[in-house]
Amino acid sequence: MTATLLLLLPLLLPFAVPVPARRALDRLAPVTALWVITLCAVVLAGCSLAALGTFVLTGLLRLPAFAALGELVHPLSTASGPVVLPAAAVSVGALAVCAGTLGRAALKEFRAFRRARTEAGRRPAAGDLCVIDSPRPDAYALPGRPHRIVVTTAMLRSLDAAEREALFAHERAHNRGGHHYFLAVAEIAAHCHPALRPVRRAIRLAAERAADEAAAAAVNDRRLTARAIARAALAGQEARSARPGLAPAAASGPVPHRVRALLAAPHVTRRAATCAAALLLACATVSSASSVTGLIDFHHRVEIAQGEESR
User: Where is the Peptidase M48 domain (predicted)?
Assistant: First the structure.
């Protein structure tokens, strides 16, 4: 029963993470928050998948047919026998749902990315800047080789020269920081466990905040950067964007929150920041320890069932 409880812990801990993730986003520097929250999401998602997989294998190896395939002398023995098969059945369903939704999302994203790269490839580029003639105001960082900053003519008309420079600095910061990788990891984690969907939003916001700060430093004007982001968001709020989901954009996320952060003086309390980061890392550590201990116990029971080790 203890091993079963240890494997349940990685499935329950993600529900405790969204609130600390939001607090970490408010208390940590944006780049630090981006790394800490993403690392925590990766560990929690991986541990939850490991727990589900262990439940499935435990249930299968209790059946004589699968025990024979696994070269077990006798079916796997567990202290929590009555709950193993139902848990295995639920785990199979959960893994199937994860794989199905993630596969559909990946296919949709691949098609959107290919369309965006094709559209950008048809246009002449000025350095990394690609201007698309469109009535929809939009601008985003398009990853790939080479990186591109895609902006529509409608968005260019919506901003003055200084605001356009701030917008371009924001999008270049996304490409320079590899933020599309963080967004991809957040998307995968959200499909691995439903409780990590709010964490996906926190990671997206952390990426936007990091790019906001980089743009403000590049143009040396926080107020100008805030105004550019606000005007870009207002211009694009009525337009349906065709950008890929993993292409970060200045006008995405909770723009009022980002504008307030830019207009306020940067201030991070070291004690509060340390507590926020420590809480997230503690959740990841406990989840890792529980899943590893559960896997070790599972391996020990398999060796016993194979006759390689005594009880």
Answer: 124-184
Q: Is residue 311 part of a domain?
A: no
- DSSP state for residue 77 in the 8-state scheme: P
Cα dihedral sign for 269, 270, 274, 275? negative
CA 159 to chain centre: 31
* Residue 118 counted as domain residue: yes
Tens of pLDDT, residue by residue over 15-34, are: 999 999 998 888 888 999 99
Decide if 52 contacts 193 (C-beta within 8 A): no
Q: Identify the DSSP state of 13.
A: G
Using CB atoms within 10 Å of the CB of residue 93, give its burial: 0 to 12 exposed, 13 to 18 middle, 19+ buried: exposed
Domain residue limits at 15: 2-305
Cα distances (angstroms) measured from residue 140 to each of 105, 170, 173, 277, 281: 20, 9, 11, 30, 31
274 CB-side CA count, 13 A: 3
